[in-house]
Specification:
Blueprint (H helix, E strand, L loop, with lengths): L11 H12 L3 H4 L2 H9 L2 E5 L4 E3 L7 E7 L2 E7 L3 E8 L4 E2 L1 H6 L6 E4 L3 E7 H6 L4 H31 L8 H9 L3 E2 L9 H5 L9 H10 L1 E5 L4 E3 L8 E6 L2 E7 L2 E8 L3 E4 L13 E4 L3 E6 L1 H10 L1 H35 L1
Antiparallel strand pairs: 1-8, 2-7, 3-6, 3-8, 4-5, 4-7, 9-10, 10-17, 11-16, 12-15, 12-17, 13-14, 13-16
Length: 345
């Protein structure tokens, strides 16, 4: 493996060359030239020749990679099929985001298809970017859009499989129950919950006291029975939820059939893709799989925070991005399973 790394890129000629490449990538759509300059100075540069393993399936990484030049293949190895080519990515694409954000082993290997140059941002450099919250937010926004694009590609593949599958359809009664099964707004006192204790949960450590007071004053506390649909097919409103008690199932719904993804438990925020862009033509559905109590951050509140309290919005978007990456991890597993099933057929 050919790797050149620098303790933060500070060579002006090098920065100028990299700036030109990044300005023409997806990052250039969201970050200004000066912001890209700062990002480069908080990164390392690594180069790989064709065939090099950039990330290895099953191993962890403390870095996130951004492709500057070249193409890579995402390869998943399974016991049944051997190696499966999942996808090819090029300049501007992020690599290793699942491992970096979720702190889990890589779900597949990333192999250089051509000569590849990457910006590498490790944990330390990423934390240093906290001094530039708007840049960090824009980086996460760009990453979230890539994740949503990937979710859309696999969503389309899954819906096609669902259409041609012999999966059992939801019953008419189930559809009717789901339609009328709506969450109801409650109070902390009525739910016998302490607002102060809720504020101590790890998910809220990101916010200061003033931000917490503002959020808890405007978030809706909801009680939802089992099989209550919270984010449904065709939902275009940007909203997100924090599970306090109970559990929620994420799924892909199509032709009155469900392909289940993952179960989301207490202390976790989940968000629809509309939080990134309401124009996405697909939706991941979220339905309670048992009785649950949740906090809802409505589209109106999200818009107000983004407009009036940017620092709070940046923090909140970190959680939204994390939830989308967790969703990507689940849908990647489903994608690999579909490859295996196609191979077996």
């Amino acid at each position: 493996m050919m790797v050149n790394t620098f303790p933060g890129i500070n060579n002006r000629n090098q920065i100028k060359i990299l700036l030109g490449k990044l300005e023409n990538s997806i990052l250039g759509k969201y970050l200004t030239q000066s912001e890209l300059d700062i990002l480069i100075q908080h990164s390392k540069l690594s180069e790989f020749v064709s065939g090099d393993i950039i990330l290895k399936q099953g191993e962890e990484t403390d870095s996130i990679y951004i492709i500057i030049e070249g193409q890579v293949s995402l390869i998943a190895r399974t016991m049944i099929q051997g190696s499966t080519n999942i996808e090819t990515l090029g300049p501007g694409s992020f690599l290793g985001e699942i491992c970096f954000i979720e702190k889990v082993p890589c779900p597949f290997s990333v192999i250089a298809k051509t000569h590849v140059k990457c910006l590498v941002i490790n944990d330390t450099y990423f934390e240093l970017l906290s001094a530039y919250p708007e840049i960090k937010y824009k980086l996460l926004e760009t990453l979230s859009r890539q994740v949503c694009d990937r979710l859309q590609r696999i969503h389309n593949k899954v819906t096609e499989c669902i259409t041609n599958s012999d999966m059992v359809s939801l019953s008419f009664l189930g559809k009717v129950v789901s339609t009328f099964n709506q969450p109801k707004q409650i109070t902390f006192e009525g739910a016998n919950l302490s607002k102060e204790q809720m504020m101590q949960k790890p998910i809220f450590k990101l916010f200061d006291n003033d931000e917490l007071e503002m959020l808890f004053a405007r978030m809706e506390l909801l009680e939802a029975s089992k099989n209550c649909k919270l984010i449904y097919e065709g939902e275009k409103r940007a909203s997100c939820y924090i599970v306090l008690l109970g559990a929620v199932q994420s799924s892909i719904a199509h032709d009155n059939k469900l392909a289940k993804l993952s179960v989301i438990g207490p202390g976790t925020l989940f968000a629809g893709v509309a939080c990134v862009d309401a124009d996405y033509p697909y939706t991941i559905t979220f339905t309670t799989c048992e009785q649950a109590i949740l906090l809802k951050i409505t589209d109106t509140l999200l818009a107000d925070i983004q407009k009036e309290k940017p620092q709070l919005w940046y923090k909140l978007f970190t959680l939204i991005c994390t939830s989308l990456v967790a969703l990507e991890k689940s849908i990647d597993k489903l994608d690999i399973r579909l490859h295996i099933e196609a191979y077996n057929r």
